[in-house]
Amino acid sequence: MPYGCRRTALFLGMFFVWFAVTGCGGKSTSTVCKLTAINVFPRIATVDHTAVAPGNTQHFDAFVATATPGCAVTLSNLTTATWSVSDTTNVSISNVHDATYSTATCNGATTGAATVTATVPAGDGTNVVNTAALTCN
Predict the structure, then answer these.
(1) What is the DSSP-derived secondary structure letter of residue 42?
(2) For residues 32 and 69, what is the distance between their CA atoms, to the nearest angstrom?
(3) Phi, then psi, of 98 in degrees rounded to 5
(4) How many C-beta neighbours within 10 Å does residue 106 have?
(5) What is the pTM of this model?
(6) Could you tell me the residue ranges of all domains in the chain?
(7) Which CATH superfamily is domain 35-136 in?
(8) Is residue 20 classed as helix, strand or coil in its secondary structure?
(9) What's the pLDDT at 8?
(10) Which of 51, 92, 113, 132 could form an S-S bond across to 40 if both were Cys, CB 3.0 to 4.6 Å?
């Protein structure tokens, strides 16, 4: 191979190595994985507040419904949920990470359904929220 061709081939080879290492210089399009929606199960529950424990309780679970496309998420119960209830007089719910976590206890009869809310960090500094209804008879 003549000297000029070898020099050109060497230059092109170095250019392609440089291009492969540095990319095309465009902006990175890395995906920020975050939850975009959750589900709460069961959606509707009715419990007898006069029943002896655990008959006066209802366990709730929060699951990933959707996430940013391209993100891998587990479909198990979300243990990062913070639980709350709208009727704190008649219903309590545990946020202690033990066997009682996400279990609501009916302490009295509710007027209609109490709202059970799960709040989960989305992964970008915001929260994702969904609700269920619990009636304590």
Answers:
(1) S
(2) 10
(3) -145, -160
(4) 27
(5) 0.76
(6) 35-136
(7) Immunoglobulins (2.60.40.10)
(8) helix
(9) 52
(10) 132
